[in-house]
Amino acid sequence: MSTHAEEMAEGWQRVHPFAVLVTGLRNIRQAIFPIVIVLFGSQSIGGMRAGVVLGILLLILLFNVGGAWLAWRKLRYLVGESDVRLEQGILSRQARSVPHDRIQDVSLEQGLLPRLFGLVEVRFETGAGGKDELKVAYVTQEEGERLREVVRDQKEAPAAMPATTAQGAEEQVAAQQPPAQLLFAMPPGRLLTFGLFQFSLVIVALIGAALQQVEFLLPFDIWDIDGWEKRLSGPGQWLSGLGWLSQIIGALSGVLFLIVLGVLTGIGRTFLRDWDFRLEKTAKGFRRRRGLLTKTDVVMPAHRVQAVTMGAGLVRRIWGWHSLSFISLAQDAKSANHDVAPFAQVREIEPIVREANFHLPAPDTDWHRPSPKYRFDTALLGAIPVALVGIVCLFFAEVYWLGWLLFAFAAFEALRQHFLWRYERHAVDATQIITRRGWLVPRTTMANRVKLHSVEISQGLIAKRRGYCHLVFGLAGGSFAFNGLPLEEAEAMRAAVLDSIASVDFAHLPR
Amino acid sequence: MDARLANEGLTPLDPAYVTVMRISTLLMAVPFVIAALAGEIGGMLPAGAFLVPMVFAFALLVLLVPLKRFNARGYDISDDRLRVVAGLMFRKDTVVPFGRVQHIDVEQGPLERAFGIARLVLHTAGTHNASVVLPGLRHETASEMREAIRAHVKRETL
């Protein structure tokens, strides 16, 4: 391996030295449990001297920070002519190269700890799924911005201006940088409204899980119901002696407490995640910034958007609050779609959709419903097994009531399918394929006809017999299908869509 | 091949594909046969409890099913797309335009090599149908198809 100075001359760079500190501190945070165990252990042994304990702690500290320092020494990155490279690893080396051409989006992420040091993490998404990204952990904010710009310029300049010379292209790019145009933002008031709809009882589950983790520390078993009864029947006896009114009040206040807790959790989570949410259209594409403690900053080229999804929960839609997300090859915080307007009115969403070169379904769209046979069969398949179990239950006195409950469930399933038959639909318009799906969170998804990769007609046993089928499209980064449509209709739609796909080669797709 | 598939203008696969499917089913059945035989010889199963069902299952799995599967399969290659039809119970009818092919494989297992057939695999960038497999082609046919698709991709890219 060449010396550091030689590497620098070739353009190789190391991440910021403070990265050692941040990574070291983060490792120690993960090592807290072993440390606690060491402390506990030393207590129980008793005879161990303070010096030994201190020594062990120092060793852990040294190990973590030393490891982080070694990792820092052995990590180098380079933004080259045609690719970004990263080499890392202390014992086993790993060298990764990502061609500029294949970068889907570049995101800057800033956790709380790195933020204190003014550092960011730069991630290059290639669309190969979460684990195959290229990550440069902790460079300065400016270096992060520079990395992003360098990559974008190299990637976009030749494609945008094929005829001009390289120098001319650069000038044009420089001249062509209009100020960012703000598409969507969420002020605190909007966030508060959004948070109200994000009711979540996840905190209750979290507390439960935490209790399970530390229950060995509690003097009794909290899951032991008999024990609780005994405890309540002792000094807690007064509770049941208070009469039904106070019992109802008690139950109500319990429910109220849960509701308040759920609402507060929802608001808290929303503020943490979406604080200062801003979506801009820049020369490089869509840029989204959000986050209170962990700030993220993602730039995604407009042509990388494969499909857009607009949805709204059953309650939110009463007030017209919809959400919009983009489907692309890259991933966004472990979800396949990029939230671009999580809480907005349709009139705010419409311009964003237009900027991504899609359009909301026109009023005169030629909608088609799935075949009624498909809905009927699905309803039967869902309801019959449940109803059968219900019938069996009717024969046993102990579970008699369960039978009726199951019947109600079966009836509900049938009704749900009826609702879906009335609501779900699909269409093929001049440039897009569109579906409207779902009942709890109904959503409309639009994909570009040209950007599809394959079209499949699939049929199961029942579908074959009953003459309907599913039309499944090969979309990059997501799934897209029309379910249960008549065979002839599917064949006609497939032919139409295939002609648009075949008319443009992959190499000529806008990129 | 089904009359219906022929009516749709689909090309049947190579008949050697039936033999290959039969042999691979046979190979897969070997462990079960050994286990059942051991059971019968060891007296754990009543006499004939193994032989009779096995004859039926073999007749079905080795003789009939591969033939039916072969009959349900077909393909159609035109100048800008490939259509692959497959599936006895779950029918899949996929069309891939050549303009969306990322790379092409021609694959051969040892059995397929012995019978001179190959699988043509088209990879696309879509999440669904990321690779479309067309088995049971003569090796020469598969290679020719690959060249044709490759030539198409090259022409379009230039």
Q: Which runs of chain B of at least 5 residues are low in confidence (pLDDT < 50)?
A: none
The CATH superfamily of the largest domain in chain B appears as Pleckstrin-homology domain (PH domain)/Phosphotyrosine-binding domain (PTB)
Here the CATH topology of the domain at 4-175 in chain A equals PH-domain like
Give the helix proportion of chain B (percent range).
40-55%
Radius of gyration of chain A: 29 Å
Descriptive keywords:
heterodimer, A: 511 residues, alpha+beta, PH-domain like, seven-stranded antiparallel β-sheet, six-stranded antiparallel β-sheet, 17 helices, 24% strand, globular, B: 158 residues, 2 domains, three-stranded antiparallel β-sheet, 5 helices, 6 strands, 25% strand
TL;DR of this structure?
Chain A is of the alpha+beta class and 511 residues long.
Topology of helices and strands:
The complex is a heterodimer of chains A (511) and B (158).
Chain A (H helix, E strand, L loop, with lengths): L3 H7 L7 H13 L1 H14 L4 H24 L2 E4 L3 E6 L5 E6 L5 E6 L1 H5 L2 E7 L8 E7 H20 L5 H10 L5 E6 L1 H10 L4 H13 L10 H9 L3 H5 L2 H31 L2 E6 L2 E6 L4 E6 L6 E5 L10 E11 L2 E10 L1 H10 L16 H23 L5 H24 L1 E4 L3 E6 L5 E6 L6 E5 L1 H6 L1 E8 L2 E9 H17 L8
Antiparallel strand pairs in A: 1-2, 2-3, 4-5, 4-10, 5-6, 7-8, 8-9, 9-10, 11-12, 11-16, 12-13, 14-15, 15-16, 17-18, 18-19
Chain B lengths: L2 H5 L8 H26 L9 H22 L1 E4 L3 E6 L4 E7 L3 E7 L2 H5 L2 E8 L6 E8 H19 L1
Antiparallel strand pairs in B: 1-2, 2-3, 4-5, 5-6
Helix pairs in contact in B: 2-3
